[in-house]
Specification:
Blueprint (H helix, E strand, L loop, with lengths): L2 H4 L3 E2 L1 H8 L3 H10 L7 E3 L2 E5 H10 L12
Antiparallel strand pairs: 1-3, 2-3
């Protein structure tokens, strides 16, 4: 599988969820609650995520132990 074609720079909710390994409903709840803070944009009625923002979210939430506090 070619990741560049599977994950273009703007992802819809289902693609972003697969990329992060979470459910689409998790992302929908995050958009409503603002937590966790995962940047997104609306293009018309379509919700889109930049792959670079998802990568930054992953990087910001990296841990080395399970006892580390959650990111702010």
């Amino acid at each position: 599988m070619n990741l560049a074609s599977e994950y273009p720079s703007l992802l819809n909710t289902e693609q972003a969820a697969r990329y992060l390994g979470v459910s689409a409903s998790f992302l929908a709840k995050a958009r409503v609650n603002g937590s966790p803070s995962i940047p997104f944009t609306r293009i018309g009625v379509a919700v889109r995520y930049r792959k670079s923002d998802l990568d930054a979210f992953i990087d910001e939430n990296m841990k080395t132990t399970t006892s580390e506090p959650k990111a702010a």
